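The authors assume throughout that readers already know how a fold can be written as discrete tokens. A single example would do more here than another paragraph of explanation. An entry of this sort, consisting of the sequence and the corresponding backbone structure tokens, reads as follows:
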Amino acid sequence: QVQLVESGGGLVQTGGSLRLSCAVSGRTSTIYTIDWFRQSPGAEREFVASINWSGGGTEYADSVKGRFTISRDNAKNTLFLQMNSLKPEDTAVYYCAADRSGFGRFDKWGQGTQVTVSS
């Protein structure tokens, strides 16, 4: 099994920065990618960023390109999302999720961490 636990959310002003962490435990050898998603009230959950757990390749949503950076420390089994130049529209609950299928099926999710950007 794989467990994911997010941390690092909080309240920040527009233009500020936050770094989210996702601690990964269990059978990490079964993971293909880990993605960050976010969901704001009344909206659907949306993709933010993705990282290949072994190779390190990354992808980003257009809305966060150039502002957010996803990275991982495999030795510590931890995923990070560095968020810079935050905007009020980045306000959401952020989740990390693991794809163990290799087909974009995310069957393991963290509990989420709230990010609030004030204007």
About this structure: The chain is about 0% helix and 55% strand. The chain has a mean pLDDT of 95.
